Amino acid sequence: MLLDLRPPESTANGKREVPNLQGKTLRDAAELLGMMGLVLVPEGDDLPTGIAVEQDPQPGTSLPAGGRVRVKFRPPPNIEVEP
Question: Is the Cβ–Cβ distance between 52 and 73 less than 8 Å?
Fold first, then answer.
């Protein structure tokens, strides 16, 4: 019997499949990418409390370990941000 202990996001060639980060907080996105060996590059005006609305590369893209994922964060829909 063989037991494969690799995380499901890691492929046999060492690449990781970028997850869908839409709707995640900065903290959640950073933790998830960090566990996968990928690096979060956050963008946007409301980073501490924002929600992910866009990302590059798109979900499902394969990246090598240490690959960067740019994510744009915006305020959640029901929270007003004071200037």
Answer: yes
